[in-house]
Amino acid sequence: MTGRLDGKIALITGVGGGMGVTAARRFAAEGAKVVGCDLHDAGAKETEELVRAEGGEISCFGGVDLGDADAARAWVDAAVATYDGIDVLYNNASTQRFAPLEELSVADWDFTMRNELDLVFYTVKAAWPHLKNHGGGSIINVGSIAALRGVEFMAQNAHSTAKGGVISLTLQLVVEGGPHGIRANVISPGMTETPNTAPLLADPPERMRKVVLDRIPLGRHGRPEDVVNAAVFLASDESAWISGTNIVIDGGASVLG
């Protein structure tokens, strides 16, 4: 690693699995002091042990329900108490429920909003005064190409709406944060392999193959490192004059319409 994040204090949500593990490892390897959290204690502990074994600096908090505003604030305050500031807030955590519109329950809709949109607002709101006091910083929110187009192979009503909200919220953060040196950007992945999607990608339904996988110009689905590479750039000083972007990482699939 090249030390692109040397000395930066990076808060990363959802580090207990999927892209979050990759993010925690890479940020620490690039020199960041990582404070992670996850809903699951075991996953948070495993990531903490893994990163420390690799020589990185990290503190992980398990059992953190970011869909609860008080819990989100407590985690952010604990991070600031540990390192006396925030340079990067990487909102990676999310979970959702899928169903066609006629079958999607109000409870499933509310669950998805809570765990894909509300939790971003809560962590940003908690981190905002600390970012201002620290002289600014970088907020990285994870969107989705589902917020930019319809998805043919799976009904994603609530997910698409929540991620659209994340993108819109980010644009307002750009305006309000600019005078304080706070940058905000979005990363919108396409079909990316995680523990949740791995079984689907191992044996994809024919419709998914036809309308998604066979139409990726670069010829493969995404990997966690594809997303994290962009996050490292947005967290680093290399992107010091970049705010308000939405980096789509989908192998070129979305340009096909």
UniProtKB/TrEMBL annotation:
InterPro entries in the record: NAD(P)-bd_dom_sf (IPR036291), SDR_DHRS6-like (IPR051122), SDR_fam (IPR002347)
Short name of any one Pfam family annotated for the protein: adh_short_C2
Keywords, sorted A to Z: Oxidoreductase
Superkingdom classification of source: Bacteria
Keyword Oxidoreductase: yes
Stretches assigned to coiled coil: none
Keyword Zinc-finger belongs to the record: no
Similarity section: Belongs to the short-chain dehydrogenases/reductases (SDR) family.
Protein name: SDR family oxidoreductase
Organism (species): Nocardioides mangrovi
